[in-house]
Write a structure and sequence with these properties.
Layout: H1 2-16, H2 22-29, E1 33-35, E2 46-50, E3 53-62, E4 65-73, E5 80-86, E6 89-93, E7 97-99, E8 106-112, E9 122-125, E10 132-140, E11 143-150, E12 155-158, E13 165-166, E14 168-174
Antiparallel strand pairs: 1-7, 2-3, 3-4, 3-7, 4-5, 5-6, 8-14, 9-10, 10-11, 10-14, 11-12, 12-13
């Protein structure tokens, strides 16, 4: 784990200078996080399903750091909101970013514990320990819910009440050359 984090930071430093942030991590990968108010729902990265509603991958700023979560259109008012968990407390935001990426360039890869696949999509830096967070999703009951994975914890913290920790989960990865290759 330590060597992967050091390698990631070293790559970032070479590419963007000495300031490390979620934005600089994503600039290296070419990840396209955009403001939620400027997108068409058909352009968003699908994250799962909850209460028969489609979930999208989002992140919101909280205490200066990006926290990943699930975005969905509110059934009552039609507004797109990002729901995320921070220290087991749920928050909703209308000021957030969504992941826009052609679906054929990404895949959800099954994993468990502290194994983070190569080319995992970075969602931010965890404010509690300054560790890189990755986009993940996991089954919770009959629902597939987006969350964040931290290698040191070995779980996907999903954006649901109480911030459940799921040890068997999927991580969003950028496919090599934009095409999924068997055996990766």
């Amino acid at each position: 784990m330590f060597s992967k984090v050091i390698l990631a930071y070293f790559s970032i430093l070479l590419a963007v200078g000495s300031q490390v942030s979620a934005e600089s991590v994503n600039a290296v990968d070419g990840i396209d996080w955009v403001g939620s108010r400027v997108v068409d729902l058909s352009d968003l990265t699908l994250g799962g399903k909850e209460d028969n509603q489609t979930l999208f991958v989002c992140r919101a700023q909280w205490e200066g750091d990006w926290i990943p979560g699930k975005a969905r259109v509110d059934a009552q008012d039609g507004i797109l909101r990002c729901h995320f968990q921070y220290w087991q407390v749920g928050h909703n935001s209308t000021d957030f970013e969504v992941l826009v990426w052609p679906s054929e360039t990404t895949s959800w890869v099954e994993t468990e514990g502290s194994i983070i696949p190569n080319r995992a999509v970075v969602s931010g830096i965890d404010p509690g320990n300054d560790e890189v967070t990755y986009v993940c999703r996991a089954w919770h009951g009959n629902e597939l819910i987006v969350g964040k994975a931290l290698e040191s914890f070995g779980v996907c913290f999903i954006a649901a009440d109480g911030e459940p920790r799921i040890s068997k989960y999927e991580v969003l990865v950028k496919n090599a050359y934009g095409v999924y290759e068997l055996g990766e």
